[in-house]
């Protein structure tokens, strides 16, 4: 029986993938084997010693202490693409409300609704809410992953020119991206030619304040900036200066911060990107299945810190070992299996960055299993060993 702690509301269809026979779901468990969360900030929370895995029912994992998890041999799973359509639809909404003054206009109508001359007042006042069409304008897309690709392709369908930038473009994205998207060589190139700019990159140490004073100084005058990725990607002081100078005409963000409120050229939504029943279910189902497959079989799919590694279950016991990605680890692991006369049925070893992960399927196990596990742990650079039978 595995105990799973939930740190946010997780769609019941997802949790339903974790059968009651094998999983106990508890939102107060002190020593869970697995954690499922959405945006809960885990950074200030201690990780219990027996924790095996963390599953983020969404895309961004900046709320999870991923480095600490890696050091402890804990995979962090997420749901790549699970909420991408929901975000794309909100970004398109953002594109329109950044252009046409729909939000201010409808708020104004409410203020004059008691007027006796409503129709006359509306016709006189509507000139204050004019805004340009997006047809034929240029959209710059920074980050062409699951969301960026959908946004770029949809904007082409709406008659925009699209220029994209992603120095780490994946094969998957390249397959789906329309060839009509112009590929920029630099972020500066994108912001210099775009009337609308949308951010779709993760927040991490390298991307914090990507949009800073220097980048604003290179931005096309009057551009509209959309941020449905993370607040920390934009330096708010530099943004406010850019708004004052007219470099940015409107900023639309899904990440409310006090200093952004009360400015008529900033529209803030309450982190609604993934808040659709469809994406909440998609993400919950994806991560529940990933977690289940890891806890049962050691298989890894869609982890941000562990390599993909899947060996179909064939009824034989298996040992999962994570270790630092350095030379001669397979040799040392093999020597331990030889010592216990274990015939290896299958061994898969994959690596990601500084971490490597193995699933070793065994024909049989020795009687002194605990000693075998101790010997595996005794190999320098081994991080975690799990016996699954
Ligand atoms: N508003 C919301 O509710 C909401 C919902 C989902 C995701 N998000 C945010 O959007 C981000 C992107 O989501 P996704 O599903 O597209 O993720 P993704 O991993 O599929 O795509 C991210 C892309 O950014 C690229 N990238 C990384 N660093 C870059 C840089 N410096 N310059 C240009 N490109 C860079 C990567 O190569 C990748 O292609 C998430 O990390 C998350 O923070 C927000
Ligand atoms: O990174 C994500 O997936 C989004 O920011 C969605 O966050 P949420 O699951 O808390 O809505």
TrEMBL record:
GO molecular function per UniProt: NAD binding; phosphoglycerate dehydrogenase activity
Gene3D superfamilies: 3.30.70.260, NAD(P)-binding Rossmann-like Domain
UniProt feature coiled coil, ranges: none
InterPro entries in the cross-refs: ACT-like_dom_sf (IPR045865), ACT_dom (IPR002912), D-isomer_2_OHA_DH_cat_dom (IPR006139), D-isomer_DH_CS (IPR029753), D-isomer_DH_CS1 (IPR029752), D-isomer_DH_NAD-bd (IPR006140), NAD(P)-bd_dom_sf (IPR036291)
Pfam family membership, one: 2-Hacid_dh_C
Reactions mediated catalytically: (2R)-3-phosphoglycerate + NAD(+) = 3-phosphooxypyruvate + NADH + H(+); (R)-2-hydroxyglutarate + NAD(+) = 2-oxoglutarate + NADH + H(+)
Family of the protein in this entry: Belongs to the D-isomer specific 2-hydroxyacid dehydrogenase family.
Function summary: Catalyzes the reversible oxidation of 3-phospho-D-glycerate to 3-phosphonooxypyruvate, the first step of the phosphorylated L-serine biosynthesis pathway. Also catalyzes the reversible oxidation of 2-hydroxyglutarate to 2-oxoglutarate.
PANTHER family assigned to the protein according to its UniProt record, in alphabetical order: FORMATE DEHYDROGENASE 1, HYDROXYPYRUVATE REDUCTASE
Protein name (database record): D-3-phosphoglycerate dehydrogenase
Organism listed in the record: Anaerotignum propionicum DSM 1682
Gene this protein is translated from: serA
């Amino acid at each position: 029986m595995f105990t799973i702690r939930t740190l946010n509301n997780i769609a019941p269809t997802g949790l339903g993938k974790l059968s009651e026979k094998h999983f106990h779901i508890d939102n107060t468990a002190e020593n869970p084997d697995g954690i499922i969360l959405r945006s809960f900030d885990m950074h200030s929370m201690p990780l219990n010693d027996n924790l095996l895995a963390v599953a983020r029912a969404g895309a961004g994992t900046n709320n999870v202490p991923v480095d600490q998890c890696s050091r402890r041999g804990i995979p962090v799973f997420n749901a790549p693409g699970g909420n991408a359509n929901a975000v794309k639809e909100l970004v398109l909404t953002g594109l329109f409300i950044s252009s046409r003054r729909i939000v201010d206009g409808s708020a104004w109508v409410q203020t004059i609704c008691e007027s006796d001359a409503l129709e006359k007042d509306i016709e006189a006042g509507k000139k204050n809410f004019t805004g340009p069409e997006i047809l034929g304008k240029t959209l710059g897309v920074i980050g062409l992953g699951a969301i960026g690709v959908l946004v770029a392709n949809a904007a082409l369908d709406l008659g925009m020119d699209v220029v994209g930038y992603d120095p780490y473009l994946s094969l998957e994205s390249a397959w789906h991206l329309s060839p009509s998207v112009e590929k920029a060589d630099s972020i500066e190139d994108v912001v210099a030619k775009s009337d609308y700019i949308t951010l779709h990159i993760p927040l991490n140490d390298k991307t914090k304040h990507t949009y800073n004073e220097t980048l604003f100084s290179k931005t096309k005058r009057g551009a509209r900036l959309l941020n449905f990725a993370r607040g920390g990607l934009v330096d708010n002081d530099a943004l406010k200066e850019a708004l004052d100078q007219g470099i940015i005409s409107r900023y639309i963000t899904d990440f409310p911060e006090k200093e952004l409120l009360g400015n008529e050229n900033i529209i803030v939504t309450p982190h609604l990107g993934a808040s659709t029943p469809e994406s909440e279910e998609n993400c919950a189902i994806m991560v529940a299945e990933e977690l289940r497959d890891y806890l049962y079989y050691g298989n890894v799919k869609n982890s941000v810190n562990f390599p993909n590694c899947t060996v179909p279950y064939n009824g034989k016991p298996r040992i999962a070992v994570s270790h630092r990605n350095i030379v001669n680890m397979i040799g040392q692991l093999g020597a331990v299996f030889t010592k216990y006369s274990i015939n290896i049925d299958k061994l898969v070893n994959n690596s990601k960055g500084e971490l490597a992960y193995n699933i070793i399927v065994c024909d049989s196990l020795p009687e002194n299993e605990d000693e075998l596990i101790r010997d595996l742990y005794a190999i320098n650079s081994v991080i975690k060993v799990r016996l699954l039978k």
